[in-house]
């Protein structure tokens, strides 16, 4: 009798565990970034970069899910000289590891997503007229808000378009030209990301 009850318990455990595991999904993503730094007096998403990482998501409803990611993210700012009256060249490269957490709402093949992310600076470089400058180093940690929309091409592949905007000053010090965002003056990363993702089985 004990063995029979034990067998039933084990069977129910594995059935429950299988159903719970089916709520988890993982995948990989790779894409391109266009970025600027709001407040640095150079306007336009002129700095190109790459984006890539991995994610795991948990379905907690028919349409809702939470997704945690680990991504590599290239951001920065660029100003190119032109042939008229601008002879200044400038480039700021900043590389981050970011940890975003998204709430996702699914409607057919489309998914709307929103959530915060923390960025951790891996390294940076800054040049003015091809000469290195280091007047105002970036902060080691940044906080962003992300908004995006995903489209499932099929059961394995999809595309994702996102905005990624800093909420706190990305620099260690305030300088002339800083703008106001939320609670403080400063400079802020703004990025657009277009990526392809692959769902792991």
Outline the fold blueprint.
Elements: H1 2-21, E1 24-38, E2 47-59, E3 64-79, E4 90-107, E5 110-128, E6 131-132, E7 141-152, E8 157-166, E9 179-181, E10 184-186, E11 188-200
Antiparallel strand pairs: 1-2, 1-11, 2-3, 3-4, 4-5, 5-6, 5-7, 7-8, 8-11, 9-10
Task: Give me a quick take on this structure.
By secondary structure, the chain is mainly beta. It has 1 helix and 11 strands; from the N terminus they run αβββββββββββ.
Structural class: mainly beta
Q: Strand order of the main beta sheet, please?
A: 1-2-3-4-5-7-8-11
Element string (H = helix, E = strand): HEEEEEEEEEEE
What oligomeric assembly is this protein in?
A: single chain
* CATH class category label: Mainly Beta
C-alpha end-to-end distance: 39 Å
Tally of DSSP β-strands: 11
Overview of the molecule:
With 201 residues, the chain is mainly beta. The chain has one domain: Beta Barrel (Porin). The chain has one helix and eleven strands. An eight-stranded antiparallel β-barrel has the order 1-2-3-4-5-7-8-11. The protein has a two-stranded antiparallel sheet with strand order 9-10. A hairpin with an 8-residue loop joins strand 1 and strand 2 (47-59). The longest helix is centred in the first third of the chain and has 20 residues, at 2-21. The protein is elongated, with a radius of gyration of 22 Å.
Question: Which key features would you list for this structure?
Answer:
mainly beta; Porin; 11 strands; 201 residues; 1 helix
